[in-house]
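Question (not urgent): is this output format expected?
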Amino acid sequence: MIENIHKNIQPELIKKYNLELIDMKPQAMLKWGYEKFDNQFAITTSFGIQSSVLLNMVSKLFLQRKIKIFWIDTGYLPPETYQYAEKLIEDLSLEVEVLQSKLSPARMEAIHGKLWETNKVNDLDKYHELRKIKPLENGLEKYNIYCWASGVRAGQTENRNKMRFLDIIRKRLSLRPLLNWTNKDIFYYMKENNLPAHPLFSKGYSTVGDWHSSTPDGIEKKGRNTRFGGIKQECGIHTNN
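Got this back:
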């Protein structure tokens, strides 16, 4: 039974939920989300470097045919990401719904230009709004999703270091089962479950998004600082700004 929760959820309820989640393992959090919100619960994935972990957990819990899995495809992902996605979908027997912008890449570039080339935060914000945030919100709205889970981790960015297991993002609940996991936790889970690495991991990428805004780790930049030309750490999906 889905709880009758209003869109303007009260801080006291968020606090209560976080107290319930604090001692749970990620798998238990996923089950909690499904049991609490039923068909109003969904998973998002980027098929990035560490995406296999959350997807594998969903698969092993036999939730992959009960919970919507959304893949936000900007149309600018590297070929390796598309190939990796196909492999994981087949290996884990996933049913994934692809969310894309209503604007094709060619049409967007004709109207707005190559927004990632200007080195302006406002242009990147517009790009992310068009290609990531709006497609996600349209998918969540279509299925009346109230709570969505992702694989974000506290150590990835300054913003994520301040996150709780459950919080409000754009008037919906966002669940983060892997929030407290370290790189070692990810590594050993993938090893123990024989999960394939993203093809770009062996080429020095610790994080990967669009082909034009992702680079391998270097001496000066590592992790999320390699994204978006180093002028941003977040694409906006996991923020309210």
